[in-house]
Structure formats: C-alpha cells, structure tokens
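FAQ

Q: What does a record look like?
A: Structure on top, sequence underneath. For example:
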C-alpha cells in the first residue's frame, strides 16, 4: 500500500479535500494526512491519501514548485517520486511514472530508460519523441555510460564522439546508470533541446532517483 501526494487547494480544509476525493472516487478505502514542506520560502501543503481498492491504485496530481530554480523543483519532486513508487513491485510501471514525472515537472525534451539485455540497451519506458530502440555496448552516450559505469554529462551532443542522433533536436544530454549485483541493469537518459543544459545539480538529484530504482531492480 503506497502513499501518494495530493495538492490541497487554497483555503481548503482536510474534510473538504477528503470529501472531494471521496466523491470523485467512490468505493475506495483510504486514510489521509497532511504534510508541510518548505523549499526556499515556498510552502506547499500536501494531503497524502493512502488509497486502496481491489482494482487499482492511482495518483492524481504532481505538486510542481512554481519556481525558475531547477534545484527547487527537484527538491519538491524527488520525495513525490519516492512516494509514487513506494509499494509498487512492477519495475515497468515505476519507470513509466518516473519518466512522466520528470518530463512533466522539469520540461525536459526527452526522458527515458534503456534496459540492459545481453549485449544491447533496449528502449524502455520514456516520454518524448520516438527514440532509438537498440543501442550497442559502448556506443553513443548511453552505451558509453553503460561501459564506464558512471554518469556522463554532455554539454553539446554534436561534439561527443560516436553520438547517436535519435533526434536532431537534442542538444545536450545526461545519462545515469543503475546497478544490480555490481553490473549496470539500465540507464536513465535525459535530453534537452538547449545546449549545456545539465550540471552537477541535475546529477545530484537524478542520482537520488537512480538510488530508488536500484532498490526496485
């Protein structure tokens, strides 16, 4: 049973919000509680609903920090990703929601996963334009991250030796591996349509996300 964040509307109350949820989703069994989080002066009030039915478990909204600071948006997002995936055993379902959450919150050009199968990376859950379906070991940024077993930040993909141009609109990229039993199991690939769009802040918070994924695989 997982905990999911729900956005509390301004001037709403616990009972109003609980009743509103009940009206939208009749027949469910759930418990509710409040949390407060403060990020650089931004106060976000969230209602966490533990929602359980015989048929489905779902989340309704992401809380997105209304800030131009990417770090502040990460700080609000990462705990929600943990809550969103907590208790869900299916890795594909979790990777799908993680890709969607990153794309929706950070507005990256492309976010997705490549999963190691034998000697190739195979396209997994993603958000964005259609993508390359198979990448060989050591090829492109994703293959290089797999081979090196480390995060790679590329400020300009056209200057990366052997870059695989799945889309000409991609200008910069960050790729992070997730490990299982000492080997790379999958990589997270994030692309931007802006040059030099990734830095150590992205690496820090995306590494936290990859740590969550490593516990799932």
């Amino acid at each position: 049973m997982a905990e999911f964040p729900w956005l509390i509307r301004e001037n709403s109350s616990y009972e109003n919000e609980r009743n509103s949820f009940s009206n939208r989703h009749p027949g469910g069994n759930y418990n509710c509680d409040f949390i407060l989080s403060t990020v650089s002066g931004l106060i976000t009030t969230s209602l966490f609903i533990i929602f359980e039915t015989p048929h489905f478990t779902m989340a309704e909204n992401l809380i997105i920090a209304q800030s131009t600071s990417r770090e502040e948006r990460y700080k609000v997002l990462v705990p929600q990703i943990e809550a969103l995936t907590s208790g869900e055993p299916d890795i594909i379902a979790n990777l799908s929601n993680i890709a969607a959450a990153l794309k929706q919150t950070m507005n990256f050009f492309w976010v997705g996963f490549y999963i190691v199968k034998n000697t190739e990376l195979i396209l997994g859950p993603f958000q964005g334009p259609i993508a390359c379906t198979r990448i060989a070991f050591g090829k492109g940024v994703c293959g290089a991250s797999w081979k090196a077993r480390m995060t790679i930040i590329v400020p300009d993909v056209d200057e990366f030796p052997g870059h695989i141009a799945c889309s000409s609109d991609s200008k910069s990229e960050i790729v992070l591996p997730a490990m299982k039993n000492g080997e790379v199991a999958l990589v997270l690939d994030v692309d931007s349509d802006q040059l030099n769009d990734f830095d150590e802040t992205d690496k820090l918070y995306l590494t936290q996300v990859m740590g969550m994924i490593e516990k799932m695989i």
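Q: Is there anything notable about this one?
A: Residues 3-85 form one domain.
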